[in-house]
Amino acid sequence: MSAYSYTLTNLLISVRALLKEETASFWTDAILTAYINEAIFVIAERTGCYRTTQSVSTAASTRLVAFTGFKCIAAEYSSKALIKITPLQVGHVPIDGIYPQYFFESGSNIGIEPIPSTICALTLYVANTPTALSAGSDVPLIPYSLCGLINYYAVSKALAQDKRFGAAAELMSIFNNDLEFMSRALLPNIPDGLDNLRFQ
C-alpha cells in the first residue's frame, strides 16, 4: 500500500472537507493555499525540521556573513567544522592562524572569528525556510510525519476568518499540542556527534 501524498491538491481537498465547503464559496483556493503555506512555514520554524546546506563566502576584513533561513546549526571552512561561540567570546578564544576557526549567530548573519583577511568559502548547515506550495502537485518539504498537522492549522485560520473563534482556538490548540509532542518525540534536535550535524 502506497503512502498518502500530501500534494497541494490533496491538502486543499482535506481542508475543504473539514470546513464543509467542497467548492470555493466563502474561502477561495488562494486563501486556503496561503494558510497551508503558513502552516508549513510555522512547522519548519518551530521544529527546525527542514535543513539545507548553503555555500557562502566571507568578504575580506568583514566579520559578518549573511545566510538565509531560521538558524545556522553548523559551519565549515575547508571541510573543517568551526566551533560555535557566543558573541561575548569574540576576542577571548585562542586563535591559531588567520583562517576562520569560530562562528556565532547574529540575526540572519554569522560572525567569523578571527576576522578573515581574505575571501574564504564556507559551508553552512541551516534550518531553512521551505519553498511555498503553488502547483497542485507540489508536496511540502517537511517530514511526512508532520504533514498531517497542516490541516489543523489551515482550518483554524479559515474558521477565525469566519469569526468562529471557539472552533478556531480548539483546532489551533490541537495543532500546537501535536506539534510540540511530535517535535520532542520524533524530531530530537540534539546531536550526539559531529556527523549528525551534516545533512542534505
What does this structure look like?
- With 200 residues, this protein is an alpha+beta fold.
- The chain has 2 domains: 8-49 and 141-185, no CATH class; 53-127, no CATH class.
- 34% of the residues lie in helices and 19% in strands.
- It has 5 helices and 8 strands.
- It has a 4-stranded antiparallel sheet, with no helix packed on it. The chain has a 4-stranded mixed sheet with strand order 2-7-6-5, with no helix packed on it.
- Strand 3 (71-77) and strand 4 (80-81) form a beta hairpin.
- Helix 4 packs antiparallel against helix 5.
- The protein is elongated.
- The chain starts with 7 loop residues before the first helix and ends in a 15-residue tail after the last helix.
Which key terms come to mind for this protein?
200 residues; alpha+beta; 2 domains; 4-stranded antiparallel sheet; 4-stranded mixed sheet; 8 strands; 19% strand; disordered C terminus
State the order of secondary-structure elements, H for helix, E for strand: HHEEEEEEEEHHH
**What is the total domain count?**
2
Helix content: 25-40%
Query: For the terminal residues, how far apart are their CA atoms?
Result: 28 Å
Summarize model confidence as the mean pLDDT.
Answer: 89
Query: Mind summarizing the main beta sheet?
Result: 4 strands, antiparallel
**Beta-strand fraction estimate:** 15-25%
The total beta strand count reads: 8
Number of helices: 5
Question: How big is the Rg?
Answer: 21 Å
Decide which structural class fits the backbone.
Answer: alpha+beta
* Overall shape: elongated
Order of the strands making up the biggest sheet: 1-8-3-4
